[in-house]
Amino acid sequence: MKKLLSLFVLAGVALTSLGQLQFTPERKLRFAEQIIEAYYVDEVDTAKVVTEAIIAMLKTLDPHSTYSSPEETKELTEPLDGNFSGIGIRFQMVNDTLYVIESVAGGPSERIGIVPGDRIIACNDTVIAGVKKKNTAIMKVLRGPKGTVANLKVVRKGSAEPLEFRVVRDDIPIYSVEVSYMINDSVGYINLSRFAEATTQEVKEAMDKLRKQGMRHLIFDLTDNGGGYMRPATEIAEMFLKSGDMVVYTESPKNGVAEYKAERDGNFGDGRVVVMVNQYSASASEILSGAIQDNDRGVIVGRRTFGKGLVQRPFPFPDGSMMRLTVSRYHTPSGRCIQKPYTDGDDESYQLDIINRYNSGEFTSEDSIRHFPDSLRYFTKRLHRPVYGGGGIQPDRFVAIDTTMYSTYYRDLIAKGSINNFCVNYVDEHRAELKKQYPTEDDFVARFTVTPELMATLFEQGKKDGVEFKEEEYNRSRPILEAVVKGLIGRDIYEQSTYSKVVAPFDPIFSEAIAIINDPARYASYLRDNR
Fold this sequence. Notes:
By secondary structure, the protein is an alpha+beta fold. 40% of the residues lie in helices and 20% in strands. It has helices at residues 2-20, 25-39, 46-59, 70-81, 108-112, 135-142, 199-212, 230-238, 284-294, 347-351, 353-359, 408-415, 418-437, 441-447, 452-464, 471-493, 496-503, 508-517, 520-525, and strands at 66-68, 83-86, 89-94, 97-103, 119-123, 126-127, 149-155, 163-168, 170-173, 177-182, 187-192, 217-221, 246-252, 256-261, 273-277, 299-302, 310-316, 322-331, 377-379, 386-388, 397-398. Helix 13 (418-437) runs antiparallel to helix 15 (452-464).
């Protein structure tokens, strides 16, 4: 008891002495840590205490200042670095078995003979099949440092016994441009999924390829693109702008203003440009679409973007963990702040913003987003068109979300994995005859038909998965359901673009983008000089 009292007396003396000094918040934090280490009843995990303190501090700042552990940091940076080390396959889990959809061209699996349709049941000493592993857990097993070995056990149709393959892991590219093709004789289409290290070069290569096929006008699809690095966004914007045009600027009371301008005339200065966006287009997507809009270089089509305009600077720690701290805000060339409003420390309401926007009718009615105070009105750089701030990029042409073909039956078939499993099994059974009947992707897109018999088999798959057939709901969802089935079958036989060519016409933003870019007068009507 005397010892305990002595500890309290010592602590009190220390606090009193400290009070005579300047008691800053920084001193308070350090002193609290020292008190815990010195007097806490149990052994203290200092690393955990410090980590939790950092996380708690960042939560009080803004929704995008974050801390990540070494493992989380690696997972966050891999997609943006443009590659990872692994065996080089695209797979899907079917009936708790890893089914190979595609071996990456030139990758380690293709080089040693892994083919679409193979089922990988084990990797090294880890069983994959029949153990209900999540995709993330399976990827950790398959990935590994470059040069390490993955000994695979593979079940292949037609082989009585499992086959064994020795795969040496290698760098596997992660592509930003997953789809690019010609929509018609003069209009090209590029879908960009992220802004990563190699994104600019990928876009240049895609545009060069499309130009050789006759592209004079471009639809740039940024829907669902959550962003990434800023540099590719400014470099891609430069392709469409003139030397000296503002792309974006950042502003901060502590760091001042930093401007990013086009350093040269872009090589796609002519031709119509339509940019597709939606509520999930964020960050770098908003920088690019804002630069196109504010410089009157193209027409933005879709729905208001996410509104992520806070600039994070990474501060890596020696143990591999990292703190990403907001240091400034992005502004479009006209002066609009991209960041939507938020309340410090109120992460929950910020995360629910998309749901609240849906419930308020913003995704279905243009009127819900067209009433702004004059304080949020800005003007584009060349044509002096009014554009509006308040968070995100407001499109020039609003497109409502289409729920007419949505049904709970369609939702449940997707949620249960019935559609994916059915398509994988169908391709597995008919790959050779489909390739013979439809030698090219164009043949498949033009001539393959989803028959009633094919759909009846899907219904049976759904029943096995616990999804009861609902005729009325099926009839409502039938067009999109048949398109998805055809698209997935085509994707697994040909390319990712096959799926897009089949399913994209059902996207109202895509349809509106085509209608505008194919009509010069209508396109020009959005780009009128208002001075």
